[in-house]
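Two quick folds needed for the group meeting slides. Do the first one here.
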Amino acid sequence: MPALKVNKPWGHELILTEENLAYTAKILFIKAGHKLSLQYHDLKQETLTLVGGQAELIVGPTKDQLQTNSMAPFTGYTISPNTVHRLKAITDSLIFEASTAEVGTTYRLEDDYNRNNETDDIRNSQRKNE
């Protein structure tokens, strides 16, 4: 299966796995100076690995208890469900993400692009439109 490219306002993601699997693998391309939502997932667990560029992982138990970590290349950073997190690219960056299936809701606490929470329905419609 060829990768499915999903354009995002911060860059794009290449989804490497089929929809019906119990896991998802993807590569995120984040443009320099851009960041993903400050978010948490109710069901999804993920491990993030910097494979190119320079990026920061902002993470904590709540929005008011965040730490900013410079990501070390080829190091796994695991994010459990309900953990608040955000990725920020210092330079153009590539992040490999391995996670449980893309299910549940992504709750966006802050978003530079004014996007709402992402549900299964929204996620599925984005995949069909790409």
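Then this one, please, same format:
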Amino acid sequence: MTTYITTPIYYVNAQPHLGHAYTTIVADTYARFKRLTGDDVRFQTGTDEHGEKIAEAAAGEGVSPKEYVDRISGMFRETWPQLDVEPDNFIRTTDPEHVTTVQNILQQVYDKGDIYFDKYTGLYCTGCERFLTEKELVDGKCPDHQTVPD
């Protein structure tokens, strides 16, 4: 049997913390167990290196987004051996192979007409990085960030 295990692809707007360690240790433990039972296992983790929050964090440190994500992603990669975690693959969303794969998939979806360009306006919460509906607001604010969406 083949088993594929992945952690979340961690967002690099801050350095690794206990929650990242917990999730990754649990995934690594499960991968080891499945190997002991004879499964062919692929265990992957990595970092998500795109987004407005990352650009803001980089600006706050006075460095480019690339410098920032290289440093934080490196922290994640260096943490796992210290915890005796052994992923088969560590992916970065800025890896050329990942970028090419995503571009190819999105091109296929676009070619089928499922992606189109248009204007959209709505209640966008930068903290959540998503649009909210009127029903989700509490007193006109995002319930998680207490901000008024743009």
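Slide caption for protein two: The two ends are 49 Å apart (CA to CA).
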